[in-house]
Amino acid sequence: MYHKSDCEGFQCEQRMLEANLGQDDAGLGVVERLIGWLRQRSLFVLAYGTGCGAIEMRPLMTSRFDAERFGIIGAATPRQADVLVISGYLAVKTLKRVIRSYEQMQEPKYVIALGSCTINGGMYWDSYNTIKCLDHYIPVDMYINGCMPRPEALIEGFTALQERIRRGEPGGYQRYRDNIDWYKANQRRVFGDNMPPAYTYDWYSEGAT
Amino acid sequence: MHVLLDSLAMIALCYVMGFLFQGFYRQFNARLQRRWGPSIWQNLYDNMKFLLKSETLIHGPMFFFGPMIIAAGAITTLLFVPFLKDSDWLQGVSTHGNLILIIYLLVVGPLGNALAVGSSGNPFGVMGVTRGLTRLMGLEVPFFLGLALVMLQHETTSVHAIMAAQDGIAHWNLITNPIAFAVILLPFIASQNASPFDVVGAPVEVYAGPRVEFGGRLLGVLMTQNMMMTIAKLVLVVDLFLGGASNVLELIAKAFALFLLTTAISAAFPRLKTEQTVDFFWKVPLGLAVLGVVLNVWLI
Amino acid sequence: MNLILKLLFLAVSLTPALTLLTWGDGTLAWPLFGGFELLFELGPLSAFFLLLLALGTPLVALPMARGTPDRAAYGLFALLLLGMQMLLLAGDFLGLFIGWEVMTWSSYLLLIRSTRTTLEGAQTYILFNLASAFLLLAGMLVFYSLTGDFRIAPLTEASAAGRWAVFILLGLAFLIKVGALPLHRWIPLGYDQAPDLFSAVLAGLISKMGLYGLLLLPTLFPDALAGLSGRLLNGPAAGYGLAWIGAITAVVATFKAISQQDIKRLLAYSSIAQLGYVVTAIGVGSSLAVGGAIFQTLVHTLVKLLLFITFAGIVLQTGQRRFNDLGHLIDRMPMAFFAVLIGIIGLAGMPPLPGFAAKYLMFVGLIDARWLLLLAAMMLSSTAAFIYCYRLIYGPFLGHANSPEARTATEAPWSYLVPQVVLMGLLVLLGIFPGFAIEVIVDPVLMTLGLTPIGAPSWGELATPYGGYDGVVLMTVFGGAFVIVTALFWLARGQMRRAGSPYDLSFAGEVPTADTPLHYGAGMGRELRRIPLIGWILAHTTAGVQAGLTRQTLAAAGLLGGLYRRDPQTWTLLAVLVLVVASTLLALNGGWF
Ligand code: SF4
Question: Domain NADH:ubiquinone oxidoreductase-like 20kDa subunit spans what residues (chain A) (predicted)?
């Protein structure tokens, strides 16, 4: 899909999302359906406060909007998290940490990106040091756009993600595995020699036991 | 055969009660904070989600065995706690154990897990373990002294005998030995890793403390044992102070009442630092315990 | 030649076992000058300690016999064995004293053979041990003046003052050997500086001779010390002080142990603490407590031999002895890891290993005596012990390798591994069968001390009037649960993989490298100082207290001396004044007192 010329990055994303929305969960066994349902009921969030959008994560978690009623709750470390929330623009420096954290999460794992900055750089579109299209570096499962998205929008986004998990769709992590060379090439383009170490992903190609 | 079935029943009961109680705890806290909060089944979902994760990363064999040891420790502990009195069921192997053994068994698992934390090589985890051990040192002294008052009162270390001696509400140790109950209450909350003594594993304290490197199914195992252990400890205190229970409903009611009490206390106080915790335990509960000793032993 | 020498040495190390097996009931009298004679016999109490020797010496001798033979050390070791056996077999104080001296001097000479021994260490060792020996001498002379005989026998007819004198002199002599506070200073220095394997002997065997002495006290003062000064609560009043000495020793030494940076020093302090429990239990004096004391003696011997031999192996392989300089040996020295694991489980008194049975008996003994405050002190010390136990395993074996040697180390030679395996096996077996140890080892000793035996319904069970537990069931349940949980998890493990690098850590998104200080071994326990009580204890050292005492004494002397410094008239006047005041007081009082 990424090699087609008619879409790029988040556009592909959006297209996939839209293409799937009308589909029902035909073809899934009872067990898969149960697993999917249990998984979507409990999302541990690693909120990476990279940009100004991080400010909306707090009201989301506290009493007013109370994300905990959807089973969404903060996690302390990447090891325990299911969802990585990238809240806004990413400098090259933060991107490195984001990639490292993402690779340390345990599958199934999902990425939610907030704000127009993660989609196309937003108001930092011409900055020398900001990542324009996050999806080139890590696979984004869900974009929530707006500058900045309100907690209602976040909840909307989370429930959409939950819906997809429930239907047992393969998350972005699958894409990351399949296209790891492409992602790594993109990352290398911005980092140069300054790449994060390879030991967090190099087992993708070996096939783990 | 009977023992096996019985043990399975105890484990299942503990697990079910565990996630329901903890779900209730989250609900309760949410309502206090004026939110709806998660459903009461949320802890089951969380646990299942982790047990169903498709990927698990380990840091060497010891890291893998740590959660196994802690789970085995939790199962062993709960099998040594009699759940009911005057019944053949839900006894486990409790006739072969005693109270001091149970107190020690409570820490076997966490110590085994500490090895796993150490072998992960994450300094934050080890920092958390040290904090946990420090807190343990603080809480265990008044806790044990309070229980020793009960053991002294009944001149036995057998939980069965202590339970049997409390027939009727007037003979509950809660009534006959209120100081001992007051002494163990706060250390008991700390041993449940509940607020305000939850500095060890709290998410924002040194990066989740001992659990920092655990993810995937291993974390699921840790959560499972945590729920079972919570219930085992509650039942132990019910046995010792609330006269035990003669059927499951009574057990659940009493354990829930106790849980409600500890929850209410937990919800009201902010978190203490480790050294504050220890210092607090060595001043207030231990002071009370010494008072209890003086009253019970020296003045009688 | 070397081989023969080594074989001879190993044969010598088997002598305690031979003595134990062949002695039988007979007594051996050796006439000395003037009607005195040396009397040797083997009672159950001596037999118990001889059993410890018989277990320990071959296990230490095996690794000692490795490499080029160190003839002087072999000779001194043989002498040491002779001394210890002599003092155990002695039926009278003469033999006890001679054996004690032989043991002291030969162990001193062995100690100073280490290249690490400093003048301070050597001096402290010999001074404290000589003090112990002379106190023993004084005690036995008082004993002789009371009874007219050196035989170790109950002291019933003597006056109260005489009995107290014997009690205090002998008690002090043995407490020095055990290392009770504040008489423990030689232990951390000595254990630390001694040759690595000899530390095992020091901690595992020689310190037990002090306990042997302490256990002689109930023989001298029957009715479990209660004959001495009545009862307090439900225990002997004379033992109450002894028990507190033990408990305070245990608490303070435990905190000191936590703050050590050197493995062997930590073990030395933990030895002091563990023997503190035993002293407390001996102070309680009931059959439960003394049974616990004997059990703890046994367990502590096994554990300390195991730990010291294992760490001797680690020091041999890496040359490092500080927590800071080791790390992550679990992959390189798995055997040592298991040995230390079993060792610390025993040390911490966790079920299912026998350390728990010993603790259980002591706790129940304290509850029975209604000495609950002592119980709290014991509990404090034994939970704080978890921290140093965790350090013992974390520092060397887990975490990250912190020195080039730790990165390349290999398993210790087989002569170190064999004792480790044997000791681990013994510990596990004793843990499964606590009743066996009670029945076979503890009860005979209790009976000679005139206490009711504890008894055991079966080998797996430990039974007391207060309830007990079943080691077999415990081990089965725990092992079964472990196997089932592991099997279930393994079957449903999903995709499990090992981290590709030790630096694949959650580290707030950062990438730690070899330069990042990741090994938390050194700092562990530092934050404990913020707890007021512990901070206070750690801020004061016994050496400091003793130096302070010296300073105070000197200052007082200086003050007195100041009176003499002036011109002669002043102090003549002073002397006259004192004389006048004294005679006035005398006159008023009507004679001396
Ligand atoms: S999208 Fe807007 S609010 Fe979000 S990070 Fe970018 S500039 Fe900030």
Answer: 51-161
